[in-house]
Structure formats: C-alpha cells, structure tokens
Amino acid sequence: MSVTETAYQPTERTVPTRSRDRAAYDRELVHAILDGAYVCHLGFVRDGAPVVLPTLYGRVGERLYVHGSTGSRPLRMAGQADPGLPVCLTVTHVDGLVLARSAFHHSINYRSVVVHGVAHQVTDPAEKRTALDALVDHVVPGRSADSRPANAKELAATAVLRLDLDEVSAKLRTGGPNDDPEDLGLPHWTGVVPVRPTYGTPVPASDLEPSIPVPGYLTAL
Amino acid sequence: MSVTETAYQPTERTVPTRSRDRAAYDRELVHAILDGAYVCHLGFVRDGAPVVLPTLYGRVGERLYVHGSTGSRPLRMAGQADPGLPVCLTVTHVDGLVLARSAFHHSINYRSVVVHGVAHQVTDPAEKRTALDALVDHVVPGRSADSRPANAKELAATAVLRLDLDEVSAKLRTGGPNDDPEDLGLPHWTGVVPVRPTYGTPVPASDLEPSIPVPGYLTAL
C-alpha cells in the first residue's frame, strides 16, 4: 500500500462508516498515539471466531512488534501460518468523560489507533533483539539499557511478531458535550471529567540492594 | 454452557496454553474487573479478517451490553447475522510496571477479562433502555438518573448488542519481579511502579448555567 510522506493511505476498512470527521491518517499523530501507550489489544481469528488479547508492544519506525512465549497461541499461529497471521492491533487512550445533559449525547474523549495487517514471526536475531529492546523501552523509556539483555536461551523461548504500519487509522474525540439546542435549559451539570493514567511511587523489590537508588528514568515518568 | 454458583466453567478456549496459574473463573472476580472499567475492546470477524474496536460497555447481571449507531459495522453485522455475531470482548486494567533485573522478566501487573460469545441485537424496548442506563452508569455511577433519558428517535437510532457472560475467563498478574537467582546481584533497580487511572477536576461546559453545582457522584469518582 502506498503512503505519502506525512499520512497513511485510507483504505476501505480504515474509513469508518460513521463519525468520519473523527478519523485521521496523519503519520505523526498515529506515532504519537502509539508511543504514548504500551498495552495494545491484539485481535486474530481462531477456528473462525475472533480472539482479542491484551499485550505489550513496541514501535521501531514503521513497524510494530509484539512478543510472547513461543508456546502461546497467536505466536504459534503466526509461525505456522503462511503467509502470516491476519491481525488487528488497537491502541486506545481515554482522555475524558463527556457528560451531556441528555443520556444520548454522553461520550468519551479518546485517541485510538487501529492497525490492520498480517503479522510475521521475526527470525533475524538482530531484529529480534531490537524489537525486544523497543518493547521494554516502550513501557519505561531508557530501561533496556539498565537491565540484563536477553541471553540465547531467553531469546529462543521468546517469539516476536512484526506488523508493518501500512493500513492504519487514528480516531479521536476531543472537546465538550454536544447537546441538542432544546436541551440547553435542562438542570443537569454538563462538562468533561479529565482522565489520565498516573504512576505511583516506585516500590522496590524486597530483595533490592538498598544502596541502589530509584533511577532517573522512573522519576521522570 | 453450565456454570456453578460461584465460577464460570472453563472451556477449551478459556484455558490459556501458558501461565495457567494466572487464569481465574471466579464470578465475583470477573464482575469486579468488568465493573471497574468502562472501555472494552470488541473483536469480530469481517471478510475473514479480525477487527478490534474500543467501545463502552455496561453490565446487567450476567449480560454485557455495547451500543452504537444503527449504521455502524458490528451493529449492522449483528442485526443481519443469524444467529448473531461471534465476538470476543476484552477488558484490561493495568496496575503496575514490573521492572526485573533482566529484560526477559520485565512484566506488567494487570487484571483482564476475556468474554467469548455471540452478540445479539436487543429488540425489546425495555431491555434496550435498561442497557443504555447501564452503559451511562458504568462510566459515571448515578449519572443516568441525572440526565434526560433517550427519546423515541434517539432509541431508534441506537443499536444495542447483548453478550451473555457464559464463556468467560479472567487473567491476573500481581506482585513483584521474578528474577532468576543468578541475576539477584546485578546492579539494576528492581521493583514495581504502580499505575492507575485518575480523574481530574470536572471542567464545566462553556454554556453551563453557573448555579448548577458539580454533582456528588462526580466528586466521588
């Protein structure tokens, strides 16, 4: 699928049937939404039925990576399948609860990315290592350099799937409620409640050597 | 599928191929995980390929409800499909980032529920109204009673899907990192960074009548 410099090419399945004004294909926006999260929901088809599992992911340029045990279902399926495993990978941020005066116009402010494509197992050892570093650094930027890298046994036990960013769309809702004009006089509070994930104080493992301080990349979260 | 009083019956597809100790079927636990969130990721199959979309949901007893425009794809598909639309509905809470000394043992503390089943369009008007109230109250408990209920036109424009809680599993990870014994002397910080969603101060709509105060069910969030 061809892409321009700055945007993904819309396709039949990345153009929504409704709320088209909320859809976006801008590459920088898609990257920002992806880079601001680390858990995706990965969908695949098993025996004709859909399966959706939460999993970590990482991004390296125009490629996403997910990983798992070589024994896990989607990773086995992608390894067996030729030419790969059709997947849908979705990332969602909730930014606010939108309370309108009417129940009907209640909504959520959100930013999401949906990636359609075919996932392939990564076999190149260098790409696998890059992908695993990206997965760790997606959760905690800077962490991969401050942990023991995977050894040969661990690499062999870990399967990595690659999904190209090609058929991609973002969807967003921002702003306040959109009540109907005839509801503006109703006596209900209306507005937006902001929502965001927050990090608590890091809790050291019970066996942490006490002289090891909390690293700067954690206090920066 | 038969269920006991207190637990869902495991099935071939709700028993994971790995990390079986993290799987749970307790009904109260499943309900608690479902009731603590309001966005799910709904998977279905379209033209043989998986689609995963974020959407709101509500729970009434052993039934989940999702809604959307009567023009949206999954809702049209469920209306057309006989005997319904096979779906997988997944809800995930992230509770912590687990930083081990080895990259390999990095993990996430989480609680998730995966529901497999066939979704059906709700046609009974009373059930539809109950479902829509549940959807609003799932996001903000108490809100449906403090907003204008849907009128006939709005009800007609809204499709509601029902999914029975029948083939259901929870999956959880809790606790600290599980480093290998030979890594315990490595000089890397190790522990857990708690994560939770937080609500900001409610932002009134620009056209809110100033005498209407922030309701108690919002300050209680």
Automatic annotation (TrEMBL), chains A, B:
Family matches, as SUPFAM superfamilies: FMN-binding split barrel
InterPro entries the UniProt entry points to: Pyridox_Oxase-rel (IPR024747), Split_barrel_FMN-bd (IPR012349)
Pfam families: Pyridox_ox_2
Ranges of biased composition (kind: Polar residues): 1-17
Source taxon at top rank: Bacteria
Region (Disordered): 1-20
Gene3D superfamilies the record matches: Electron Transport, Fmn-binding Protein, Chain A
Protein name as catalogued: Pyridoxamine 5'-phosphate oxidase family protein
